[in-house]
Amino acid sequence: MWIPLVILSGLAAVAGLLNLPFSYDTKHLEHWLEPILFGNEVHVTASGQTKWILAIVAIVGATTGVLAAAFVYLKNRLSASKIEHSILEEAWRFDSTVSNFMGGPGRKSFEATTLFDQKIIDGAVNGVGKVTQRIGTRLRSFQTGLIRSYALGMFIGAVAVIAYFVSRMGF
Amino acid sequence: MSFSSLLAASQTQTTFQVIPVLVLLPVFGAIAVALTPNARIGVHKMLATIFTGITGAISVWLLTAFETNGEFQFISQQTWIKSLGIEWFAGVDGISLFLVVLTGLLFPFVVIAINPKHDHKAYYIWIQLLQTGCMGVFVSLDLFMFFVFFEIVLIPMYFLIGKWGHGNAQYAATKFFLYTMFGSALMLVSIVSLAVLHAQNSDSELTFNLIEIATNPAIATNTSRLIFLGFAIAFAVKVPLFPVHTWLPDAHTEAPTAGSVILAGVMLKLGTYGFIRFGLFLFPEASHFFAPLFLTLGVIGIVYGAIVATMQKDLKRLVAYSSIAHLGFIILGTFALNTQGIQGATVQMINHGLSTGALFMLVGIIYERKHTRQISELSGIQKSAPVLAGVFTLVMLSSIGLPGLNGFVGEFLILLGTFTANRWWAVIAATGVILAALYLLWAYQRVFHGPQNQEDEPTKDLTNWERLTLLPLIVAIVFLGIYPKPMLDRIEPAVDKLVTHIEATIEDGSFTEPVPTTQNRTSFSDLLKQTHESHSYDKHDGHHDHESDHEDGSHSGDHE
Q1: Residue B517 pLDDT more than 60?
Q2: Quick one: angle between helices B94-113 and B464-482, nearest 10?
Q3: Contacts (Cβ under 8 Å, ≥6 apart) of A7
Q4: Distances from the Cα of B316 to the Cα of B40, B111, B352, B361, B382, angstroms
Q5: Which of B439, B344, B364 is CA-nearest to residue B396?
Q6: CA atoms of A33 and A20, how far apart (whole Å)
Q7: Chain A with chain B: Cβ pairs closer than 8 A
Q8: For B547, which of A24, A111, A113 is closest by C-beta distance?
Q9: What integer is the mean pLDDT of B161-183?
Q10: Closest residue on chain B to A45 (Cα)
Q11: Contacts of B18 (CB under 8 A, 6+ apart)
Q12: In Å, how far is A3's CA from the nearest CA of chain B?
């Protein structure tokens, strides 16, 4: 396990060199990304002095952390149990919170959405098909193929038309 | 005389009509297959390979002969129905170029890689007619011609799904056909009314010429908004956009592998391409007016598609729903109405074709091995089929949008464009990227990891033939991820021109375009120069720091 860690930490140690903020020519990563950003990137404007101060704060912070860890775990000057609270052991319960959420309400809401897609959205589409089919079935009963019933329909229609015109003539 | 100079000579000296050849060659292929006796199965495949292959080769030649500018090229124009002003009017610009190439290359790929289980002859006829239809849509510059090809596409696909599909194929095919026809009917009304109103209002003869109508619309704002909606509904069904998407999962799941690959690779792009070419170009004002609606539907599609994909039990259906999410991204980019957004959308159309096409290929291969697509019944494939698992991983990561693979380029441009236009939509859409990782990685974990099913035989790994056929897709996925510049350069001028056209039409001033796209720039290096110029501008204002000082010193010398 230590080999991948060594490789990763080695890479992490030099990755910062890709984009040193001290001069235009040392920002290799920025130049590489420039074409795709269309000049839309936001430049953080900080003076050289601010940058140095930030860099020093970061390095001091990291070094303190490394030294403190060595003090506790390598030298055993302080019992580890004193600083390791249970919440730290569970990594701030971050993972379990996410799992509980995704396993519980998260999953339920996802399932509800899927059901909504099946029953409501797709149901509406299939519903249109079913309604059309039903209307067709009803209408089919009028298409009996019997000349007499068609003739009756024509007769009723003709009477209706005549009745309309007669009513408009207005005697 | 070298081959390339010969090509160059033929390009300049003769007026070789390349587009009609590109569109009609597969038809001749279909006729050739139809004339071959039923029993000669090998010959059918060979003929289809040759004809689609030559079409593919010509489309690649088109790519090399294409000049990087915003104009339509390889124009071919012929009167078709004179009394109605209908023409065969075809051409290619940066937006359609890569879709033409994708159509050209995906079909021979599918013909070579996938064999139908039965009815070989009919299969190869339909698949070649399908290529003609798709190709025709992407090159049409005449509204009527576009409509004809848009409709032609339905027929071969209907038969491919219905006849060679599995499960509930008839249902899926009919649903697909009716649903799309419903949209197209509205588009036909729109096309006719647009042409007639244009002729009446501008006192010209009836024409369906896209460029003529777009440059001189002569139609009242409200009317054009209505007509736009007719087009938009047809395209929205085809894309498909939430809530008219439910034909897609059914069609995808029941279609044969070849059908799914083409459906995802090319046919869904008919809708998104339609939005860009016929929506934005013909109706800039209406597009701008309705942009919030389509941005919303796009974002809903992204999140909704991803959520529903997560819960799918069928692997193929999962990929189908992931398509809905991806196409939501394309719509989002399109209706950002700026250069990055539309360019991203164009790029993403190609990327989605490659990665989702490859995903469907792989799901098809898994189905052939295990005779099931149920995720719960698949497990531990990775142990006995490491290469299959590796290829699946790569394609899946491309679909998720991992930097370094093609999916990232388009997604990034789309999010960038959307962010500058309407940042909250971009923020919500970005969650879609996370959800994509969720459903794909979870599916991968369940299918490839875990214990092997003891009762089954171990899954066979990819054969050499399958590896060979998948290789071009993988090469394209990686190449376009690492070096998208050649593609972006060719797309950009056409998109710039479109954005300029949109901006010119929108007068009310509410339209914001944050990037200097109104100038016709030719390349990225010009753009970089401009960026640096604007930096040296800052300097004179006095708002500068140590860093931009240095930058100006080394870069702005040649502009002054």
Answers
A1: no
A2: 160
A3: none
A4: 32, 20, 16, 10, 18
A5: B439
A6: 15
A7: 75
A8: A24
A9: 89
A10: B545
A11: B58, B61, B62, B74, B76
A12: 23
Considering the entire predicted model, what is its pTM? 0.81
| Residue B543: pLDDT over 80 | no
Q: Hey, where are the domains in chain A?
A: 2-97, 144-171
Are B340 and B413 in contact, with CB atoms under 8 Å apart?
yes
B106 pLDDT higher than 60: yes
As to burial, measured by CB atoms within 10 angstroms (0-12 exposed, 13-18 middle, 19+ buried), residue A164 is: exposed
Dist CA B290 CA B334 (whole Å): 12
How many angstroms separate the CA of residue A23 from the nearest CA in chain B? Answer: 6
Q: How many other C-beta atoms are found inside a 10 Å radius of the C-beta of residue B361?
A: 25
Are A40 and B524 an interchain contact pair (Cβ–Cβ within 8 Å)? no
User: SS3 of B26, please?
Assistant: helix
Residues of B numbered 246-305 whose beta carbons fall under 8 angstroms of chain A's beta carbons: which are they? 246-247, 304
- Contact across the interface for A125 and B247, Cβ inside 8 Å: yes
User: Tokens representing A52?
Assistant: 């140095």
CA nearest to A122 within chain B: B246
Locate tokens 């930058």: which residue?
B551
Compute the distance between CA of residue B556 and CA of residue B547 in angstroms, rounded to an integer.
14
pLDDT single digits (tens) B221-235 = 888 889 999 999 999
Please report, in angstroms and rounded to a whole number, the separation of the first and last CA atoms in chain B.
Answer: 45
Higher pLDDT, B52 or A22: B52
Yes or no: say if B48 and B128 are a contact pair by the CB < 8 Å rule. yes
ipTM of the complex in this document? 0.74
pLDDT, residue B149, reads 93
Find tokens 């297959």 and name the residue. Answer: B33
